[in-house]
Amino acid sequence: MANGYNFKDFKSNQNVRWCPGCGDHAILRMLQSTLADIGRPQEEVVVVSGIGCSSRLPYYMNTYGFHTIHGRAPAIASGVKTARPDLMVWQISGDGDALAIGGNHFIHAIRRNIDINIILFNNQIYGLTKGQYSPTSRKGTVSKSSPFGTVEVPFRPGELALGARGQFFARTIDTDLELSKEVFKAAADHKGTSVIEVLQNCVIYNDKTHIAITDKEHKEDRTLHLEHGKKMIFGKNRDKGLIRVGFDVKVVDLGKGGFTERDVLVHNAHEKDTSLHIDLVNMEYPEFPVAMGVIRSVQEPTYDENVQLQMDAVHQTTGIKSFDDLVHSGNTWAVD
Amino acid sequence: MANGYNFKDFKSNQNVRWCPGCGDHAILRMLQSTLADIGRPQEEVVVVSGIGCSSRLPYYMNTYGFHTIHGRAPAIASGVKTARPDLMVWQISGDGDALAIGGNHFIHAIRRNIDINIILFNNQIYGLTKGQYSPTSRKGTVSKSSPFGTVEVPFRPGELALGARGQFFARTIDTDLELSKEVFKAAADHKGTSVIEVLQNCVIYNDKTHIAITDKEHKEDRTLHLEHGKKMIFGKNRDKGLIRVGFDVKVVDLGKGGFTERDVLVHNAHEKDTSLHIDLVNMEYPEFPVAMGVIRSVQEPTYDENVQLQMDAVHQTTGIKSFDDLVHSGNTWAVD
Amino acid sequence: MEKSSRVIELKEVVIRFSGDSGDGMQLTGTLFSDSSALTGNDISTFPDYPAEIRAPQGTIGGVSGFQVHLGNSEVYTPGDLADVLVAMNPAALKANINHIRPGATIIMDVDAFDEKNLRKAGYVGDDPVTEDSLQDFNILKAPISTLTKASLEDMGLDKKTVLRTKNMFALGLVLWLFNRNLDNVNTLIEKKFGKKPEIAKANKKVLRDGYNYGVTIQALTPSYIIQSADLEPGVYRNMNGNQAIAWGMIAAAEKAGLKLFLGTYPITPASEILQELSARKDLGVKVFQAEDEIAGICTALGASFSGSLGATSTSGPGLALMSEAIGLAVMGELPLVIINVQRGGPSTGLPTKTEQSDLMQALYGRNGESPAVVMAGSTPSNCFDYAYWASKIAVEFMTPVVLLSDSFLANGSQPWKVPKLADWPAIEPPYAVGAAQDWHPYIRKDATLTRYWAVPGTPEFMHRIGGLEKDYNTGDVSYDPKNHHRMVELREQKVQNVAEVIPELHVYGPRNAEVLVIGWGGTFGHIYTAIDEMNLTGDSIAYAHFNFIKPLPKNTEKVLRRYKKVLVCELNMGQFVSYLRMTYPDIPFQQFNKVQGLPFTTSELKERFLKLKND
Amino acid sequence: MEKSSRVIELKEVVIRFSGDSGDGMQLTGTLFSDSSALTGNDISTFPDYPAEIRAPQGTIGGVSGFQVHLGNSEVYTPGDLADVLVAMNPAALKANINHIRPGATIIMDVDAFDEKNLRKAGYVGDDPVTEDSLQDFNILKAPISTLTKASLEDMGLDKKTVLRTKNMFALGLVLWLFNRNLDNVNTLIEKKFGKKPEIAKANKKVLRDGYNYGVTIQALTPSYIIQSADLEPGVYRNMNGNQAIAWGMIAAAEKAGLKLFLGTYPITPASEILQELSARKDLGVKVFQAEDEIAGICTALGASFSGSLGATSTSGPGLALMSEAIGLAVMGELPLVIINVQRGGPSTGLPTKTEQSDLMQALYGRNGESPAVVMAGSTPSNCFDYAYWASKIAVEFMTPVVLLSDSFLANGSQPWKVPKLADWPAIEPPYAVGAAQDWHPYIRKDATLTRYWAVPGTPEFMHRIGGLEKDYNTGDVSYDPKNHHRMVELREQKVQNVAEVIPELHVYGPRNAEVLVIGWGGTFGHIYTAIDEMNLTGDSIAYAHFNFIKPLPKNTEKVLRRYKKVLVCELNMGQFVSYLRMTYPDIPFQQFNKVQGLPFTTSELKERFLKLKND
Ligand SMILES: Cc1ncc(C[n+]2csc(CCOP(=O)(O)OP(=O)(O)O)c2C)c(N)n1
Ligand SMILES: Cc1ncc(C[n+]2csc(CCOP(=O)(O)OP(=O)(O)O)c2C)c(N)n1
Ligand code: SF4
Ligand code: SF4
Ligand SMILES: [Mg+2]
Ligand SMILES: [Mg+2]
Q1: CATH number of residue B51's parent domain
Q2: Around Cβ B40, how many Cβ atoms within 10 Å?
């Protein structure tokens, strides 16, 4: 690497303890690799996680790391970043950690637009507690805690993030190494809360949950890799595209029914209005291809920088520069 | 009233303890009035609240009521409704109660689509604790806890509710009695989680926060009363309308620039796709009129009824009808 | 247990199955104990596994164990040391050398003892038997992996599936060792793999081949016979602590004529309660898997408010999150069963290990003066009884009840004599009755101070409750100073009144003993066994075990004052003894504590008791 | 205080301003006490207001009061009974008849004593003076509303604004009563209403007219003079408990060279800490108003992890929610100051009233063995000192510290001699130094057991921490049984080591006393005053007050054993006495408890002490 870092520089000395075959291994590896590419010194990187299989990740990173409590990682990461805007902060969470117990901190971090990068390992199951359904489990999922199938509607993480005023959302697949690096890199570059949903496979408790779209054979036909400024074209033969119909989008076969590349929408990740981004985020197989890559990336002021700006402004005008100044300000009187 | 109920039947014997001039008084009165109109017996109505000025409401209702703890009302109401689908459940929360500490329960109740009616008193401030900013306070708000103005982006309750897969969202103004009754009634009729945002004035800590749009003089020009099946026309002279531009909406002056009523969108509250509803929910003054009335109302199976259905299905096939059956099922052996 | 003997008849034996997390040792152990129970032994089991789903293969950190104690009379613990150890790899051997009795039988899968695995386990050479000085043990080296492969050669299964069945080979061998036939296990296998006949067939085949291998090599190791236990006549089933709690609440709800509602969030080691009750739609149990523990308890409280038996289940960190809502239940005076299956703390701590360190939290982990009933199960199967009691008290006193279990009880199992619901005491919800005009929700029964319960849907009885202090006379919100003091005392008194309905403290052992040992919760089996053994050998020691902690049984003080020395044993730093000290400050309690994520062993207890006696 | 006397010179006096929530009594009281402090009196104040923002007008539930105690020597409490009561309406009179000294002066706004208000307050007739038998009091009936309107007739203000100034009329009258001039109050009014000159002018006008009204009616009531207090020379300012805590942390952070970070969520009565620190951007304080208390403490913990002094502020229900995260701070061994301003419990309880009932929660409200340092402020202004100490201990021992305050301390105020930061003890963060190769995050100082702090950004010292148990030797996650026991003991020992650096317990009163009274936290002023008065009249009683609770000061046991009788007084059902009993089980503690949402009164304390002495 030009900057002298290798992914191994980001590997800690701990044995990785995930199940063989777990999607987490690849995600870890791509994060290490992305960080090596970016070249931020290890000591300037902080990785914060909650509790879950995925939340073990910080132990494996040769950076500063904090494996905290279930669901609270966004709040802890918010504290780190607000106190220390100079650090690069990553937050690792499972679908349970981020969206069940941690849902509130998740949406509030996003609303505040704190400059942290959230990697959401979505295996649609509680792995560490051995297989209960999660808030992203598909309706009808049979799991240890839903022997007759779930009756709950799942969250769509991207839809929720955008509903919480999210400015960056990307999606990738554990097995798609290049795509993962691409979106991790984009998230790192983005200032503000970045949410990356990784479709992750839990070989033990929810094996093949994403197989319909992640499967090598069908991936290209069932996913749409979005790239800013590029046409929304997909398919093994790049013969399908997305077009607008009213307020919605629709898949068409290029060359058929009179549709050509010209009709296909161009992806604008930087568009402030969320309308189209929400449509993209919500696309589900089989009706639609599932959107991959950076779906939304809009630059807005971040909480941490605003806090700093406000503080700097006050510093300019105040006469109170120290505790001793403070105690003598305002109403005092002397006794002698 | 035809059903024999008067709003007074829903008044409890407790003194109302809100500040004179507080918007809460009118909301209470309209809820009582709506319930009288609906005619459900008082004993079949349960009102659950959290903590806040607004959360005092249950004390004033002659129904079953539970004034609980801060932020947890959606969870408690979910418990009531799941255990007792036969009851009509209302949940009362302030913007802090529902969206700060209670944000997670709020989005999860909505996701599950539990048949409760949530009235969200949005005064954009923490009233009961005497005036700190809330997650809906406009950016820049000077409050007791933000002497230099807030730097946080506020939630838009409707956007968040839809992001959490909400199927019913309506908006009203404390002072607009008829509109409040209209949407309370619609929420009561809707099966599934209904969220009603009431723009409420706190005379003490955030007086006139909604005045730009609630002010009698400007209300008609600055709000759009949506009604299912009707054109999105507004203005004192009903001379403005909403039209579609790309994935977005735009305000046009009817009769000018070649726009006529014909171009104006028709409101379809029952449309499953959220695209247009989100645009409507997000409209903010001065760029847009603020949408009022029932913005979204889509019928989907509810959690409470699904739970019951699943249970009924199991009941049909099982041989285990009692505890004594249970203990003799499966692996047992006899010692004699 | 001599090396040369052939068939040994034993009164009891401890077997430990140990291997990698992926080796299926929990299943093996369960099959062995379930089938042993079917043959009439009394059993007690203890699974012991790592926090990771699959800890690194081959390392000590990844070892998963399952210990079974069986006997021909009542057994109370899974046993301190194993008489037979099955070690599927070097790490399993290494991890257990301190848990086996001198001269025990060790079954090793020699195929797994290769260079790589030996290093991973921390052996330096290639002869672990010598390295760990196990020469005097009965070592049975079997090429289990190889023989398993051979066994299934013709079945056309993939390699992974084949190797997964090697635990059955080991099990077959153990069954042979104990002169068992294969019928019970075969039946259980068929049930377990019912939907996958191929897999069932493979497992049965390997099991039989393992057994036959034993027959073949018979000459080389002793084999054992254990007679059936003298259990009371009746129908039995195996019961673990989590299932017992789930069923106890089901029984109580049915008896009370209430619906059972569990609002909860998964957490080790309590999740099986959620899972067990989720499966009980047949009996009308509603389970709400909430977004977190706060929502779990709050949905349960909402259900209670609206007339169900509301319950929630969790472990320490979850109980911490519930603190505020428990306070609301105290103030609202609503029936609520809060099950806390304790694990090693603090914080995330040792999530798969056992400990008794949440007692103080259960008693005092709330703001304000916030009294709740606190009780604990003490054997896997009597968790049923205490779950029933917890429900009964919650309903009849309109109060939250914290029921403490622990990882050891939750995962351990025992034969359980199936009860008849008709034999259990009635549970009578204190429904509001009579005229509604003058009624308010804080009118109470004189005797118990229980408030009456008006369930939504009941005409005329509409009312409001909440977390603010309320007036004694009207039930309205009140900030009156004297009234507050009165209400604080009243809530405490109501909880103390529970002492009137619970059983008195029972004392085991000789009446004239000078020494009283005290335990509470999940330590019963170990302490009882230690006491029993000591009393058999003439060391006179008395023993009292607490299941009811707040309030304490009425005769507690009388019992405590009867002895010259009182020793309180617990798996924490002394929480119960502190509670006793503040209740009976002038009694000179001594204490014995262990915080290692493990149960007591009977031998360390006996040693301590002896010391106390002779001090 | 005789009815006929004209000018009375007093050593101390208690004044209570009382009116509707909307009547501005808190402002009136503050202006009076601030201006009194400026004239050199020692003061102590106590605001007392309803939970509602505006409780129903005219009712007793809606009465808001502010009591000021001033004296010419040190005053320690706001006083039991008022010498002067200002009653802006009948409810204010009714609510306070038990809080005034016989023969006190009562100023009434007769305009507000109309039929409607009398009924709302619960008077049956139209002469409350007779109805409440107040004939022997000095009653000053003034038509305050009417005169206020007259006063502002020409200013063109709307009626609401005019009526809002009537509190100034009352204040003017009181200033006259105490022979004060108006200068100080005028200055304060100008500051307060600086941005609204019209309002400032109106207030000053009405104030003067109130004063002049007093001059006019002089003949009818006594007036008082209070000499300045003999305070130590220095610069003074008024200080309340919440501001003192905020400033104590600011001072400590500056001394330690750390940034102060407050992560918090508003709650009565702690919100002013958030508000005060939000305004301190000049000093680089970062305040994160979080979505709830869990996020509040977690952001603070994140800030601590990354090298700030992390703090959070809350009251009982919020502390309950923080339980789990405190456990993480214990396990992570991170510096964290947790401020709990106690209020009446349980649950939402009496949110605006004072109580000391969160002690047990602070000590034990967590899962597992989870020791934290617990301490308490005991006067409004010494909350500064203990906030400084809490910060110092948190940083130097790498531990969470719970600092207890209460509603009484938080809202009460006192003159405070402004300190110089240079005079305060150094605070030295235990930064990791030296070679990084062999370093791990759980390496500790031998003497204190403090682990070293490697702050993100420091090259080479990258490390990971978390809530799982860790190995003593490597700092890695460890499930080893013996290691766990060792770490549990170590964490407790580290907290106990704090006893080495804190001051010893001080005993007030005669050395040869037989009776020792014990208090902790916010009860100091009342107990001290009671003890002082009794010792002055020859009743020899000793007194020790605890600010450090866990660990206890080193000489605690020695002190406790010196006396024949030990009485522990607290505003709860006996939490500290329970803690003492479990620590020193053989000392026969007695207890005196009050749970009424109110402080002790010196008279009830004296009565109890006398009884104890004579028992
Ligand atoms: C307060 C608390 N509640 C519950 C748990 C138990 N718990 C640990 S991880 C987890 C969920 C894991 O699921 P997810 O976040 O999706 O992560 P995964 O294991 O699937 O990667 C749960 C419920 C806990 N550790 N703490
Ligand atoms: C656990 C907990 N945290 C904080 C509080 C303090 N508190 C009470 S109400 C409230 C917010 C009130 O704002 P909102 O919900 O908007 O209601 P409003 O008073 O404006 O109607 C807060 C922070 C509390 N009661 N409990
Ligand atoms: S249980 Fe699932 S998510 Fe957890 S480590 Fe194993 S495969 Fe991965
Ligand atoms: S403080 Fe505001 S919200 Fe609360 S009662 Fe008064 S006006 Fe209403
Ligand atoms: Mg998951
Ligand atoms: Mg509000």
Answers
A1: 3.40.50.970
A2: 16
> Would residue B87 count as lying in a domain?
yes
- Which chains, if any, share at least 3 CB pairs under 8 A with chain A? B, C, D
Q: For C507-614, CATH number? A: 3.40.50.920
Q: CA triplet C169, C173, C177: central angle to 5 degrees? A: 165
Residue B181: inside a domain, yes or no? yes
What are the respective helix, strand and coil percentages of chain C, to the nearest 5?
A: 40, 25, 35
- List all chains that touch chain B, counting a touch as 3 or more CB pairs closer than 8 Å: A, C, D
To the nearest whole angstrom, how far is the Cα of B31 from the nearest Cα of chain A? 28
Ligand 2 pocket residue status of B126, Cβ below 6 Å: yes
Are the beta carbons of C265 and A100 separated by less than 8 Å? yes
Domain boundaries C7-226, CATH class: alpha beta
Condensed to tens digits (0 to 9), the pLDDT of residues C373-405 reads 999 999 999 999 999 999 999 999 999 999 999
Which residue in D50, D368, D572 is closest to C347 by CB distance? D368
How does DSSP classify residue C450?
Answer: P
What value does the mean pLDDT take over residues C529-549?
A: 94
Alpha helix (H) residue ranges in chain B: 24-38, 73-83, 95-96, 103-112, 157-163, 177-189, 211-214, 216-222, 275-282, 303-317, 323-328
Measured in angstroms, how far is the CA atom of residue B175 from the centroid of ligand 4?
15
For residue D3, pLDDT over 60 is answered with no
List beta partners, residue D336: D310, D400
Here the ipTM equals 0.94
C576, C568 Cβ separation under 8 angstroms = yes
Q: How many domains does chain A have?
A: 1
The answer to whether the Cβ–Cβ distance between B327 and C462 falls below 8 Å is no
Count Cα atoms within 13 angstroms, Cβ side, for B125: 27
Q: Does the CB atom of residue B106 touch ligand 2 within 6 A?
A: no
**Counting beta carbons within 10 angstroms of the beta carbon of residue D2, is it exposed (0 to 12), middle (13 to 18) or buried (19 or more)?**
exposed
* Distance from the alpha carbon of residue D27 to the mean position of ligand 6, in angstroms: 24
- Cα distances from C526 to residues C510, D28, D249, in angstroms, run 18, 68, 50
The residue length of chain A stands at 336
Q: Among C265, C271, C348, select the one facing A51 at the smallest CB separation.
A: C348
**D7-10 and C589-593 strand pairing:** unpaired
Q: Testing the interface with C: which of D96, D347, D495, D583 to mutate, by most C Cβ within 10 A? A: D347
Distance, CA of D186 to CA of D189 (rounded, Å): 5
**8 Å CB contact of A127 and C53:** yes
Domain assignment present for residue A260? The answer is no
Contact A43 D282 (CB under 8 A): no
* Residue A163 belongs to domain spanning: 7-228+289-297
For D552, list phi and psi in degrees, rounded to 5. Answer: -75, 155
CA of D122 to the centre of ligand 6 (A): 33
Mean pLDDT of chain C: 92
- CATH fold of D237-423, please? Rossmann fold (3.40.50)
Q: Cβ(D132)–Cβ(D93) under 8 Å?
A: yes
Q: Do domains D7-226 and D507-614 have the same CATH topology?
A: no
| Distance separating alpha carbons of residues B147 and D282, to the nearest angstrom | 12
In a domain, B80, yes or no: yes
At residue C2, does pLDDT exceed 60? no
Instruction: Kindly list the distances between the CA atom of residue C220 and the CA atoms of C139, C215, C223, C507, D177, in Å, as whole numbers in the listed order.
Output: 9, 10, 10, 47, 108
What span, in angstroms and rounded, lies between the C-alpha atoms of C121 and C140? 20
Position C220 scores a pLDDT of: 59
Give per-residue burial for C122-154: e unless 16+ CB within 10 Å, then b. Answer: ebeeeebeebeebeebbbbebbbbebbbebbee
* pLDDT above 60 (res D347): yes
Low-confidence residues in chain A, pLDDT < 70: 1-2
Q: Is C251 helix (H, G, I), strand (E, B) or coil?
A: helix
